[in-house]
Design a protein that fits this description.
Layout (H helix, E strand, L loop, with lengths): L11 H11 L5 H10 L8 E10 L6 E9 L6 H5 L12 E6 L4 E5 L2 E7 L2 E7 L2 H7 L2
């Protein structure tokens, strides 16, 4: 699988700034990964995920598909927290990758979810960011 999904990560300084401004806490494994890779803020970086398996809990249907995401990790907390101005996202959700089609991947209660915007629903992908990285290997 293509691991380039993590290329949007930013410097530790920006992550701390984000947490301070939004009063939202990023998972520690996410921050540790960002720090270890010494990655810089890359705005509008395209991220490819190939053959990504999503299982919808409502229909119990699994699908393998391809996604192209554009990073929305901005310094403006409003843009980072809710770049698509969605209504109905769970309070405390943090989107970290969105696609031009309006779907996203993000954190909710430290777990990684795939957020579908139409209709709005979310599907758990992994129990934490470390597990999410293993999926992409």
């Amino acid at each position: 699988m293509n691991r380039s999904v993590v290329q949007y990560l930013t410097e530790q300084e920006s992550l701390e700034e984000f947490e301070k401004e939004t009063k939202l806490k990023l998972p520690s494994d996410f921050k540790k990964y960002a720090k270890s890779k010494k990655l810089k803020l890359l705005l509008n970086k395209e991220i490819n995920i190939s053959k990504f398996k999503i299982t919808d809990k409502i229909t119990n249907i699994s699908k393998f598909t391809k996604y192209k995401y554009k990073n929305k990790f901005m310094k403006e907390p409003k843009e980072f927290w809710d770049p698509l101005d969605w209504e109905g996202l769970p309070k405390g959700a943090i989107l970290f990758a969105t696609c031009s089609g309006g779907n996203a991947i993000g954190f909710f209660k430290k777990k990684v979810y795939y957020f579908d915007h139409d209709p709005l629903r979310w599907t758990k992908i992994a129990n934490n960011f470390s597990s999410f990285l293993k999926i992409l290997k």
